[in-house]
Amino acid sequence: MPVGSAVGGRPPSEAPLRILAIASGGAIGTLARYGVERTVAVPDGHFPWPTFLVNVTGSFLLGVVVVLVVERWPPTRFVRPFAAIGFCGGFTTFSTLAVEVTQRAQHGHLGLAVGYLAASLVVGVVAAALGMLAARGRLFPPWGTPIPDPDDIAVFRSRPSTRASDDKGTGR
Amino acid sequence: MIIVGLAVAGALGAVLRYLVDHSVQRRIPSDFPVGILLVNLSGSLVLGVLTGSALHHGLSGTWLTVEGTGFVGAYTTFSTFAYDSVRLAENDQWGYSLVNVLVSLGAGVGAAAAGLALGSLT
């Protein structure tokens, strides 16, 4: 069972469901990318905005999803296969970027090719980092309050006396 | 109809990426994302061939969309590449992160160029 062993320690019977989650996420992500690429036709010699936007937003989203799944949420089985491997993986694309860069370089737009490649790398990596920070509550306080560290939550749970502060109206 | 073809191709591409990535990482256990690197390089080569065939040998636009945009587009991934680069840097594996960025982009563009040349020839 190569697929079963690939998921590491889980019962093999779960592997088909993981594959199904990846397939559905991949299908939806691909259609979403096609929708973005269709809205703007990019002539050769111009900056490929659709691919750039897809890759940058997908990188941000993947940063958010992976941190939520790995660090924030209780263990989930199908969120990562569906949202991360399936949707974000299928939504973003590396091959289109590589071909677009090559075509622009070959058609005499070397500056555009290098600029597009560099912009995709820098903005994409920064977007992934910002997504990770946002999911950790370090980027901006979502819904008005920073997400506490898991350690802090453990302290709260082990010391129920701190709940008394809620009654005084200072807790939240 | 093209929507159905794209959805099926995207599903297959994403699943193939997962299978290739896992079988590679199982054989070469490393923090370096060699599985995704191989996926992105092979996909860039194949998309180059498909694009070259479409430009010079009349591969239909519909097939280029389904196979190229759908299958190869979903097979390769930019988001995991970006995330891995940040993750490696965060773990103080700056060398891995830098090598991942340079090899992915350099060899990716090289693979696409080789693919375009191949697709124009055959």
How would you describe this structure to a colleague?
The complex is a heterodimer of chains A (172) and B (122). Chain A is an all-alpha fold and 172 residues long. Chain A has helices at residues 2-6, 15-39, 49-72, 79-91, 95-106, 110-135, 150-158, 164-167. Chain A is globular. The N and C termini of chain A lie far apart (51 Å). Chain B has 122 residues and is mainly alpha-helical. Chain B has helices at 2-27, 34-56, 61-75, 79-90, 94-121. The chains are: A mainly alpha (172), B mainly alpha (122).
What average pLDDT do the residues of chain A reach? 83
Query: Percent of residues of chain A in helical segments?
Result: 55-70%
Beta-strand portion of chain A reads under 5%
Q: Name the overall outline of chain A.
A: globular
Overall strand count of chain B: 0
Instruction: Supply the helix-strand structural class of chain A.
Output: mainly alpha
Global morphology of chain B: globular
| Cα Rg of chain B | 16 Å
The rounded Rg of chain A comes to 21 Å
Distinct helical segment count of chain B = 5
Highlighted features:
heterodimer, A: 172 residues, mainly alpha, 8 helices, disordered N terminus, B: 122 residues, globular
Brief sketch in words of this structure:
The complex is a heterodimer of chains A (172) and B (122). Chain A is mostly helical and 172 residues long.
Topology of this structure?
The complex is a heterodimer of chains A (172) and B (122).
Chain A: H1 2-6, H2 15-39, H3 49-72, H4 79-91, H5 95-106, H6 110-135, H7 150-158, H8 164-167
Helix pairs in contact in A: 2-4, 3-4, 3-6, 5-6
Chain B: H1 2-27, H2 34-56, H3 61-75, H4 79-90, H5 94-121
Helix pairs in contact in B: 1-2, 1-3, 2-3, 2-5, 4-5
